[in-house]
Structures are given as structure tokens and as C-alpha cells.
Amino acid sequence: MSSRERILGRVRRALADVPAGEDAAIERAYLRQHGDLGPAQTVDLLAENLADYRAVVHRTDTEELPYLIMRLLAQRGPQYVLVPPGLPPQWMSAADPTRVHDRAVSTPQELDKVESVVTGCALAIAETGTLVLDGSPDQGRRRITLVPDHHICVVRVPDQVVSSVPQALERLDPARPLTWISGPSATSDIELDRVEGVHGPRMLEVVLVSDEERA
Questions:
Q1: Peptide bond into 158 cis (omega under 30)
Q2: Span 68-85, pLDDT tens digits
Q3: How distant, in Å, are the alpha carbons of 43, 162, 190 from that of 39?
Q4: Domain boundaries, the chain
């Protein structure tokens, strides 16, 4: 008996008492989050886990955000920066590089000439240090965050931050093209030598922006 036959056999046995045409009840007794963290502590946990994945984390407020993005791009010195069609224009109001707008006709070769991309996100998961993009207008198509070498992702806190994956799944639309990002693109070979930038950006910078003015 093959592995495929064994797995399918277990599925059939598990569904044997389910009437035809009805969905099997799924037990969801697992924890929806670990601990009882407040909003500020949840954002702190997100920042900690993002940094653990080697993302560079910045904190700012809405007034300072355009200037922070300007400085982050200036440090990298890109000639071109890719922007999704629905990116809030004020985010890039202080930046100098030439903006390249995401277009359906753009080829991977054209995108490869763009050094940086700036996007929003759908939400961020604190317990796993994960950003989720869903292709909304402020995020653009999946490939614009996979080809450029430098990704700046803006997260509105605390509104876009959830504690756990189960909480994230409740808020996400499964029909949308979801991209889950935990740190910059990286892999390692059999000798555990880490290589970054293999199948996505080599550098991920996450900006946690709050509507509240910082002290």
C-alpha cells in the first residue's frame, strides 16, 4: 500500500459517519492566542519577532512617516522606487527617487531594474513576526514585493496587528492572493550557510506607524 493510499484511507475512515452532502464538524479547541497581552505589548512582541527574523524595525508616527521613508531610501540610494497604485501619496511626499508605478504589463526584467519597493500590508502577526499582504491597492501585485531587493513595509499599529495566526485567518479573505512574509528572503544549504535574497528581497524594513504622537 502506498503512502497516498494510506492517507486517503484515513480520510475516508474519519468521514465515514458524516452524512453525504454535509460538511464534517471541525474541532477548534486550540488557543487563539498565548497569554493576555495588551495592544502595546502585542506591538512590542511583533517588533521583537520581526527583528529575530532579521527584519529592520522602525517606529514612527503619521507626521514623521514621509521623512522616515525618505531617509530609508536615501540610505540605500535607489534610482527608482516601485509604488503600488493605492499607496497613500503622503507616504512618499518627501522621497526623491523616481517612482515607478506598478503596471500589469511590467515584466520581471523591468521590475528587476527597480531597487526598492514601498507597500502597506493587510495585517501583521505578533506571535510569529509575520506580515501578510493581500494584493490590496496599497500593496499591489505579489511580484512587486518579490523582485526588488529592498522592501519597506508600513504597518499601522495597533489596528493592523493581531496576536496569532488564528486571529489573522478570521480577518483575512481567503479568496485574495495572500503573501506571508517572515523576514527577508533567505535559505540555507546542507551546511547551514545562510543565503539571503534568493526568492525575494534581501532586505526587509518594517515601519510601525502610530496615529498617536510620540512623547
A1: yes
A2: 999 999 999 989 999 999
A3: 6, 9, 40
A4: 34-210
pLDDT exceeds cutoff 60 at 31: yes
**HSE-CB of 155 using CA atoms within 13 angstroms:** 30
Judged by DSSP in three states, 213 sits in coil
In the CATH scheme, what is the homologous superfamily, with its name and number, of domain 34-210?
A: NagB/RpiA/CoA transferase-like (3.40.50.10420)
Under the banding of pLDDT at 50, 70 and 90, the label for residue 155 is: very high
Q: Are 45 and 127 in contact (CB under 8 A)?
A: yes
Q: What is the distance, to the nearest Å, from the Cα of residue 129 to the centroid of all Cα atoms in its chain? A: 9
Q: How far apart are CA 157 and CA 205, in angstroms?
A: 15
Q: Using one digit for the tens of pLDDT, what is the confidence trace for 82-127?
A: 999 999 999 999 998 999 988 888 888 888 889 999 999 999 999 9
CA-based max dimension of the chain: 66
C-alpha Rg value of the chain to the nearest Å: 20
Query: CA 167 to CA 165: how far, in whole Å?
Result: 5
Write the DSSP assignment of 79-138 as a string of letters: SEEEE-TTS-GGGGTT--SEEEE--TT--HHHHTT--EEEE--SEEETTTTEEEE---TT
The pLDDT of residue 124 = 98
